[in-house]
Amino acid sequence: MSSTIETMPLALHAQRAAHDHIRRKPQPRDADVIIIGAGAAGIAAARQLRRHGIDALVLEARNRPGGRAQTIPLAGQKVDIGAHWLHAAESNGLVRQAERLGLALSEASQEPLLMTRGGERADPSDHDAFMDRWEAVYDAMLAHPANGPDLAAGSGFSRVSGGPDRFDDTIRFLHGAFDSGVALDDIDACDFAAAQDDSDLFVEGGYGALIVRLARGLPIHYETPVTRIDWRGTGVRVETPHGTLSARAVLVTVPLPLLQNETIRFAPHLPPEMLQAIHALRPALYEHVVLSWPDHPFADAINRLVAFEGDARENLGMLANIDGAHLHYADLGAATVAACADPRDRAGFVREFLTARFGHDAMARCDVLAASDWAGDPWTGCAWMYAPVGAYGAREALRQPVGERIHFAGEASSATQWGTIGGAWAEGERAADLIRSGLGRPAMPVKARVA
Ligand SMILES: Cc1cc2nc3c(=O)[nH]c(=O)nc-3n(C[C@H](O)[C@H](O)[C@H](O)COP(=O)(O)OP(=O)(O)OC[C@H]3O[C@@H](n4cnc5c(N)ncnc54)[C@H](O)[C@@H]3O)c2cc1C
C-alpha cells in the first residue's frame, strides 16, 4: 500500500503543470477589449467577441487555460481535478459545444446510492424513505419565492410535514456542504432556489479538456497576471509584469476572492455599489480527493453518487467508478475543507471515514492519487461563490458595467447557474454582447478620483 503523503505532491504538481501544446506568444499588445482570465467565462467572451470581428486579447495568470476546469492524467485515465459534471444540461452552452466537437455525453444518475453508518447498502425500504424525504425537502427549499423574506435555504426543513427525520443530517450535507459548498443555514434561500438543477451529463475526455479545446486559436497570453486597472480619462490601462496595455474596455473574469483581497487594484476605486457586490458574496469550499480502490464495494455503481448516512458537516460524497474505471472521487464539503487546510489532512480524513465504515482489510489497497486544493490556489481561493442570507442581489449588481468600460463576468455573476462552468460560459457571452454594443459609442471619460 503506498502512502497518501507520498502520492500527494504528484497531484499538487499536476494541478499547476504546464500544458505542452501551448506555445509562448510574443509580448501582449493593446487591443479593443482586454479579457482578464482564461477560464470558461473569459474563453466564452473571447470567442464571442472575435466571432464579431472585435480585437479581444486574453491575459491569464497561469500557464494554461481552463481555470477551475482542469483534466489531468491519473493512473492511465483522464480525471477532472476541478469541474466534472455538466450541470443544468438543458441550458448549459457547453453541451452544444461538446456535441459540435463530436464528443460523447453520458447521463449522470440523479439518485444517490445510500450507505448506512455501518457501511452496508441501505435496504430498499430505507432507500425509498430517504429519497422521499430528499425530494420533499428539496421541493420545500425550491418553493422559496424570489421576492420572499431573507431566509436561509435550511429554513425549508421546517416547512416539510412530519417534523425532523433521521435522514435530515445526510440531506443537509448533500444539499449544503456537498452541493452548495456551504451549510444550508448560511446560504440565502433565493440563491439556493434560483440555481437550475435539471439533468447532469459527463463529457468524454473530461470537462477541463473540453474547455482547453475551446481555447485553441485564441490570443491568450499566459503567465501574465494583471495587477492594476487604471480607468482614469478614457479607455483602460491594464498593468501586468510584462507592461501596461491599453484597451477601450476590459472584462474581468477572475474569481471574486482575488478582487476581495485586491490582487487586482483599480484606479480610481470601483464605485461603492460594485465594491459592496464584490464583498457580499462569500467563498464556497469543495474539493476532490481521487482514490484508486480496487476492492471497493460499489462495483455496480458506475459514475454514480454514493451518499453516506451521517453527519451534516463531517461527511463525504463519492462519485464511484468514474467513467467505469476503478478511480473514485471522495468529495469534501465546506466544513471539512475548512478544518483540514492541508490537502494531506483531507486525504487522511477520507481514509479514516472509509475505514470506519468498511474496515482496514477493505482499505488495504485504497490509495489516494490526487487531492485538489482550489481553496489554497493563489489564482482561485474558492470552489465558487455563494450568497449569504440577504445577498442574492449581489449577483445582479455584478453584471452592471462600471464607467461603460469595466465589465465583470464569471460563475459568481450568474443568477441561475452560479458555481458552474455553464453559468460562467453564459456570463462570458452575455458580457461580450454588452461590450460589443457599447463599443459602438464613444468612450466616456470619468472624473479622476485618487486610487
Ligand atoms: C473542486 C471543484 C469542483 C467543481 N465541480 C463542478 C462541476 O462538476 N460542474 C460545474 O459546472 N462546475 C464545477 N465547479 C465550479 C466551476 O469550476 C467554476 O464555476 C467555473 O470553472 C468558473 O469559471 P470562471 O471562468 O468564472 O472562473 P475560473 O475558471 O476561475 O477562471 C478565472 C481565470 O482567471 C485567472 N486569473 C486569476 N487572477 C488573475 C489575474 N490577476 N490576472 C490574470 N488572470 C487571472 C485564473 O487563473 C483563471 O484561469 C467546481 C469547482 C471546483 C473547485
Structural notes for this entry:
This protein is α/β, with parallel strands linked by helices and 451 residues long. It has a domain at 17-72 and 206-282 and 386-439: FAD/NAD(P)-binding domain. Helices cover 32% and strands 18% of the residues. It has 13 helices and 21 strands. It has helices at residues 4-16, 40-51, 93-100, 124-142, 168-178, 189-194, 207-215, 256-260, 272-280, 334-339, 343-363, 394-398, 421-439, and strands at residues 33-36, 56-59, 71-74, 77-80, 105-107, 113-115, 201-203, 220-221, 228-230, 236-240, 243-247, 249-252, 265-267, 282-284, 287-292, 304-308, 317-320, 327-332, 367-371, 384-386, 406-408. The strands form 6 sheets. A 6-stranded mixed β-sheet has the order 6-16-17-18-15-19. Strands 8-2-1-12-21 form a 5-stranded parallel β-sheet, covered by helices on one side. It has a 4-stranded mixed β-sheet with strand order 11-10-9-13, with no helix packed on it. Helix 2 packs parallel to helix 13 (421-439). The longest helix is centred in the C-terminal third of the chain and has 21 residues, at 343-363. It is globular and about 65 Å long. Residues 36-42, 59-62, 67-69, 82-85, 87, 225-226, 253-255, 258, 263-264, 286-288, 372, 374, 379-380, 383-384, 410-411, 419-422, 424 line the site of flavin-adenine dinucleotide.
